[in-house]
């Protein structure tokens, strides 16, 4: 059975791509290329599901908001 997960992809100041899965707390990885990142996050998801023992209830992706805060 296939499960779909939303993946957030960001890029840090060192040029690494970072992927995280909001539905699976602690499920994240990084890589130098997007192709490698997608392969690694797929592996990370599989491992997280294996450790959890059950598939979490899916979240519905709504969107991303950017907020400016004076520091």
TrEMBL record:
Superkingdom in the source lineage: Bacteria
Supply the name of the protein.
Answer: HicB-like antitoxin of toxin-antitoxin system domain-containing protein
* Organism whose genome encodes this protein: Crenothrix polyspora
Write down a Pfam family by its short name.
HicB_lk_antitox
Cite the HicB-like antitoxin of toxin-antitoxin system domain residue spans from the record: 6-54
């Amino acid at each position: 059975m296939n499960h779909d997960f939303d993946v957030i992809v960001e890029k840090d100041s060192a040029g690494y791509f970072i992927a995280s899965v909001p539905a699976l707390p602690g499920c994240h990885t990084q890589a130098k290329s997007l192709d490698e990142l997608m392969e690694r996050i797929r592996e990370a998801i599989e491992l997280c599901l294996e450790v959890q023992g059950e598939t979490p209830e899916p979240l519905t992706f709504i969107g991303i908001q950017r907020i400016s805060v004076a520091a």
